[in-house]
Amino acid sequence: MAQLTVEGVGTFSVPDGKRLVLALEQDAGIDQLHACGGHARCTTCRVEFISGEPERMTKAEAEVLERRGLTGVRLSCQILVDRDMTVRAISRLEGSGRADAGPAPAPHIEPPPEY
Length: 115
Description:
This protein is of the alpha+beta class.
């Protein structure tokens, strides 16, 4: 089990290998956005890492962040919790004006990860 700390919320034990987007929702109780259902298309699942940021990035994540001109953020749908990490949840349903967070992401990274 890894420790996921969400700034201003708390620290939670998360099973190793769980998608970060799901850990934020299910373990930390965060209203994390994922408008595309966790397919690395919309960038609404953005987080900022304070510590424990994975070195590797999926090709899908790198491409969408570059296309959107985003830096300093990562897509929680493309990251597995495989270590202790501390994040800032910056893309939440509250205040977004959206009706819901988006379709439920699958338990595995989609599209299949290429690094």
